[in-house]
Amino acid sequence: MATAPRPRTTTRDPEDLAARLTDWLGTRLPGARAVDVSVPASNGLSSETLLFDIEHPEPPLRACALRLAADPGAYTVFPVYDMAAQYRTMRLVRERSDLPVPRVIWLEEDPGPLGAPFFVMERVAGRVPPDVMPYTYEGNWLHSASDGEREQLEAASVALLARLHDQVPPAEADFLAPPGEGSPLRRHVTAQRAYYAWVVERLSRSPLIESAFDRLEELWPRREGGTVLTWGDARIGNVVYDGFDPVAVLDWEMAAPAPREVDLGWTVYLHRFFQDLTVGFGQCGLPGFLRRDRVEARYASLTGHTPRDMDFYTLYAALRHAIVMLRIAYRQAYFGEVSVPQDPDTLILHHGSLRAMVQGSYWGEAGRTR
C-alpha cells in the first residue's frame, strides 16, 4: 500500500476545464472570471472537484468548489451521477438541520459546458483526515493529535450523524429512495445487488461478495427500525475540520432513506478498513479511535436510539465497500495500472476482513472494542 500507485482520478485536462469554466461563469454572472483554478491532490475516484475563486465586484461567493460528474467515457466508478439530486440533498440538509453543509449556489445539468453536469458550492477552509496515506498512518495531523483531541473530533463527528438523523424529515428525502419494492432497507440492498451486477458485467464475478450477500440474508434484522435520511458516505474523510470541530460535511452522492444503522455501520467499518490496513503494514494505527462500542454508545446517548443488529450493518458496509473496491480495481486494469489475478477476490483490499465477517469471526466480544 505504501508503494502502490494511486489510481488515476481523472482523464480531463485541468487547463481546458479552467478555460471552459470561465466561459460558463460569464453566463451566470456577467463579467465574472474564474481565477486560481486548481484540482486538489485528494480528488476523489467518483465525481471530481475543482477549486477556484470568482473575480467580480459582487460575487455571491468568492471561494468556490465545483463538483463535476465523472467523465462518462472514463470507466466510471458508479453507473449514474445524479448531480441534481446531490445539489437538492445538500440544500435540504442545510435548510432542515444545523449540520455545517456548504452553501450550494449553481446547478448546471447541461453536460455541454464542462462535459458533464456539475454544481458550484462555497469552499470552506479547514483540514480533512487524509485517505492516502490514511490518517491511521504516522505523519499526519490526526495521528499526531492527542487522545483528547481525537476524542473531541470523534464525539463531534458522531454528533453529525445524530443530528442528521433526528432533524431532517425523512419524507422530504423520498426523491433519493432507490427504485423497487419492499422496505427502505430491502430497496437499499437491492440497489447494491444491481450495482454489483453492473460492476461484474462481462468480467469475473466475486465469490466472496456473493457469499457476503448470502450472509446478509441470514443476518437480516427482525426489526428494521425507522427510516431516516442517511448520509451514505458517512466517514471523517468527508468532513472538513477547523481544529477538531466539523465545519463542512461533504460528499452526499450516496445519500438515501434507510435505517440509522446504515450510516453507523459505514462510519465504524470505514475506520476499521484503514486501521486493519495500517496494522497489516506493521504500524499501530489508532486502536482507541472510533471503536465500535464507543460509537454506538455515543450515538445512543445523543439520540435515545440504541443501535441494533450492528453485525449485519458492519458486514453490509464492508460488502458495499468491497463492490466499490472491485470496480476501482477493474478500472485500474482498464487503464493498465494493474493486472487482474486469477482470483478476483484478491482485488478487494479488505478481502480478509470481509471473509472473517461472513464467517462470523471478525468481531467477537473483544473485537467490538478494538
Q: How large is the radius of gyration? A: 20 Å
Task: Write the element-wise H/E pattern from the N-terminal end onward.
Answer: HEEEHEEHHHHEEEEHHHHH
Strand tally: 9
Q: What is the typical, i.e. mean, pLDDT?
A: 93
Describe the structure.
The protein has 370 residues and is an alpha+beta fold. Helix content is 42%, strand content 12%. It is built from eleven helices and nine strands. The protein has helices spanning 14-28, 83-96, 141-144, 147-167, 184-199, 207-219, 260-280, 292-303, 310-334, 351-359, 364-367; strands spanning 33-38, 48-55, 63-68, 104-108, 118-122, 228-230, 239-242, 245-249, 256-258. The strands form three sheets. The chain has a five-stranded antiparallel beta sheet, sandwiched between helices. Helix 4 packs across helix 8 (292-303). The longest helix is centred in the last third of the chain and has 25 residues, at 310-334. It is globular. Mean pLDDT is 93; it is low at 1-5.
